[in-house]
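Hi R.,

Here's the chain you asked about this morning:
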Amino acid sequence: MQIQAHRWASVALIGALLLTTSLSAQTDTSGGNDLPTVAVLDFTGLMMGSAGNSAPLGKAVSSMLVTELLDRPGIRVIERHQLQDILTEQALALSGRVDESTAVEIGKLVGAQYMIYGQVTSIADQLRMDMRAVDVETSEIVEAQKMNDRTSELLSVVVRMADSFTERLRLEPPSSRPEMEAIPVGATIEFSRGVDFEDQGNIEKALEHYRRALEIHPSHRAAKRAVERLENRGAEG
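And the predicted structure, written out as tokens:
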């Protein structure tokens, strides 16, 4: 994908406004204003379920990784829905595998110092995830991870990747962290579909799938967060 040069100024302005709103709500644990800013692009890849059914697992991974990173001191994180708003506003839909040059360009537009992206596949409960983190200023790959596990261990894989990235930045580990419990595959499918419907602007269907994910797995942190955010948006509207 190539981003047209004449869009850069308008995207940068929108990104700056959304980023300012997002970061103002986050606590600066260092007491300074120079914390590194991180954004996570949707991972590419699908989950293949029974009878050939599929779910957009890459979107779920992005949302879960953002949720995990938000709880860590020493960084600022651009919320996934805000990043999607910027891309949607400018019709910058990402199709196919993202490379480091694309990640760097988008990082510059939204004011991120680091961009995380990758690929994920799940077939017959076998999970493979590849993650890369690029320094937007230098275009250097600062972290690359490849992990294989069962799909039910998705949370564990996401947390390990977050650990690896923050350790590379020499950041302190989170003061508390979720239990590394297995997430039933059915909950991951429902959550993935919820994220997809939210991207389409269908909030009612998104909430329906997020709530189904919580029925299957009541401690699904990213699903809980999504329901709270969408319900609060509805109350404010």
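The radius of gyration is 17 Å.

Let me know if you need anything else.
M.
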